[in-house]
Structure prediction request, 1123 residues.
Amino acid sequence: MTKFLQTSIDGLAVGSLYALIALGYTMVYGTLKFINFSHASVFMLGAWFSLGVARLLGWGQAGAEVPIYAALVVLLATMTICGALGFAIERLAYKPLRSAPRLNVLITAIGIAMLIDNTAALEKKAEIAGYTIPIGFGTRPQRMPSLFQDKAVAEIAGVNIQFVDIVVVISAVVLMAGLQLLVFGTKLGAAMRAVSEDTRAAALMGIPVDRVISITFVVGTMLAAAAGFLFAAKYPGLNQPAAANWALLGLKAFVAAVVGGIGNIRGAVVGGILIGMIELFGAAYLFTQLRDVYVFVILIAVLLVRPTGLFPSGAVNKV
Amino acid sequence: MNAFVRRSVPGLVARSFLCLTLALGLIAGCERQSPQSSGGADAAPAPQGDTIKVGHFGTLTGNEATFGQSTDKGVKMAFDEANAEGGINGKKLELISRDTRGRTEDSGSAVTRLIDSDKVVALLGEVASGRSIAGGRVAQAKGIPMISPASTNPDVTAIGDKIFRVCFIDPFQGFVVAKFASENLKVKKVAILYDQSQAYSTGLRKNFVEAFTKMGGTITTEQAYSGGDQDFSAQLTTIRETAPQAIFIPGYYSEVGNIALQAKKLGIHVPMLGGDGWDSAELLQIAGEALEGSFFSNHFSEENPRPEQAAFIERYRAKWSERPDAMAALGYDAAKILVEAMKKAPSLKSDELAAAIAATKDFPGVTGMITIDANRNARKSAVMLEIKGGKLTFAASIDPE
Amino acid sequence: MSEQPRDAWTSTPVIWLRSILPWLVGGVLAFALYRYGMWSESNQGSRLAMPIFHFKILSLIGINAIMAVSLNVVNGYTGQFSLGHVGFMAIGGYVSGAMTYYGSMILWQSTAIHGELFGGGDFLFLGALLCGGLVAALAGYVVGLPSLRLRGDYLAIVTLGFGEIVRLILTLTRPIKKTAEEVSQAGLLSITHNANGSWALDGWMISVGGALGFDGIPKYTNLFWIYLLCFATIIFCYRLKQSVLGKAFVSIREDEVAAEAMGVPTTRYKVLAFVIAAFFGGVGGGLFAHEVGILISPPEMNFLKSVDYVIMVVLGGMGSISGAVLAAIALTILPELLRDLSWIPFLPKALHDVSDYRLIIYALILICVMIMRPQGLMGIKEIWEVRPALWLRAKLARKEKSP
Prediction:
């Protein structure tokens, strides 16, 4: 029973992280109709920028007092930085390719992912006006300063429930609710849906398509940044920026988006939690080594049986 | 696609640019016969015969970056000292370091580069056994002697007669940890969490299991992860279910940190045991207090006073402003042994140099007395270190039987 | 239908000769390159000899060309999104490696290279390559049949998943058997029930090293085989492009619905394209596994390698064979060129060592090319169809006609 409960809680926490990243994939696919492979790199930047900001502001060092608002400040700072980065990427790289064949955009996305990963892994420092500003985060794993209390909040049937896990799950739910509200309850959201439905008609109706697409992209990147921050809180030993496991995590989140129905917000969250649960339960009760295989097998099964995913976004496939 | 194509660069321009680039590159490549050194130094080629080139291939960047960087510092220090004393018969030693970036596939190409382009006469490296094996195959095929400072998997020297090492091997290391666990910690049930993507980890696990079961212990479960993983909750949950008295983690420090943190979060408070892959200044930086009361086997301990060792630590601190870890000490010893062999060998031809290295006997190294045996391994003692109060303290010393 | 005018060019023996001629020329060229390589290796001091390091690059170019041209069949001619080509490479490499390694053990009790060029060992090698290609083709069929019903993006995801699954399953294989006794003891494939209730799968068929890589494959690949097979692939794919089947593939790319309406069995042909690409991808993988200095291991056969080949196809121009070959050459040489920029004339010395920025420059080049020249280097034309070539051909034709 303990093992079952523990695995469920872990699955829920990991699944919420996947859900947050999947939301970003889904939003970009919904409006721009392409798979944004650089999303995983933004997620990685979210984690590392959180580390950088926390270090810069001096929080979480051994013995120092951590103010209550520290986590929130770091989160908002990270989301802002990554949002700005997302805006830049969209304007500089994706806008010129709006009418290009899909494979080209895919490759550009991969190029940007490579660019971000390797720039972040640089060890160089720049000397400007007497200050040494590091350009990259280096290639060594580093420890994220802990901004949350590091203790268990409750204990049920021998299973510790960590504060961090609760924060992760609640954040994911709050952000999903916020996003749902944004897309279905505001004028901006209606504009987003219109652009995703038919870009030309939306433009004809007076919707500023460029601005809406930029906003969509920025929101998506901010969600990835939030996921990165929460990931760093849960797994403080961060791998180096150019490590392969960031891309693998992004890939699993992408699978979650597809399983839930790409283009659908609720689907992304449900898909994320589902994938997280399957991965953890498979690893705990079946073979541990096949952990990643379960995720891809589910992907292929879903694509063969129900390609539009659990919650199809209702797009009509014109013949 | 049509409207789009009109805006793009004309084909003639693109193709001519490509041809020009390729032509330039080819011309440069054909003319370039001189070696290139990475990192800083001017790439002007020295005329052959002025310096003796030795190559070092290591993990200078990547997840286990401290391995390569510490080794590099130890080797550089040894070479600087040798050059200050006059070099080898008047010729200075030149170190060319190439990065394997922590990838096995880059190991083979780094060694190929060092031998073919840079024309080194001997090689030092690597720390990680999997990468040493990959590089060692190339070195053996091309007949260049190679000394690994810290690779402990027996397969490394089994490649051929040009591959040596100056550290102990995993059958011994597994025995050391097993002996410590059963005699000092008095535990009978141990769980294992190993890295299935590294030859070092799978080999050390096998050796530990053999030794520990022979001493009467039992392995409660063996769980695996892949290098680079960050989430170990599933494996640790399963381990917790089997209620072991200790957990053996024969992996590299970059993952051990996360494992320790997650184990503590899951309420696992038994001591953790490890091998020399744990040795890095970053281990404690990542794991913090989660590793209190854990032990790992290593090649040398700062607290074990021997005169050569104390002097070495002083000089290293003075030169690099940090404390040397086992990799630095082993790099230093490997480089010193190579220098000695070069002095004794009649010439620097590979067979004679290899024979001279093989004849190393009772060399007073920083990490202990080093004698290269018939299998080209070193017979040495190991130390068990305990992590107490955020520092590495000496726990026990275990000699080979 | 009127009779074809019978002249020297269309008589039967001449037709046969024209069919075989490219293969002969390719074989002779490959052999010449191989002998040059052997000569260079022993005469390194001479000015005419190529540095040894260049041969490694030449081999890699050949293998990458095979992979790019084969991927071009499914991505370029047929316009499908296959992001899992490395899966076929891995399957081909491992299957052929296992056959050569364990075949050598069983036949000759050792894994040393047996015999010279065209000796017994080489026949084992060729047989192994063929098997590797066939198994990869079978995998292509198994993957292609259900997935090619899916639309573009979804196919990309499925092929990506396939590539990852192949890689992950390869990490779970058993360690390689080192001695002949172990091999004969284990047999081909056996399932045993252990005392503590767990099942154990063993056998030399699945003992390919797991996560540590397949170490010890006898290294039969040399420049001759690489370039012979490279020419063979190019000739095959070129003739495929000219044939009716090739035109059908192109029609599927241009407008699938219209093709279906015209009677082209689209799903069947898409699967066929997939199978052909998988076969040559498997052969390329086999050559890769047997190359000196390469240790084929699952971490290396990842999504990024697939992407490398996709980039070659797109950069060269989707559907253009010469484009794919040129891109393969360029993208194999580019990382080496970027190691040390001293070959750029007039570049200040401070900028020569850019090894830290190598991948960043590579990524920037990629992005710039994608934005500035999205149709790739060649577009859909071959190198003899571009305007300068056409002008040249027209001039030659005019010279012929004038008295």
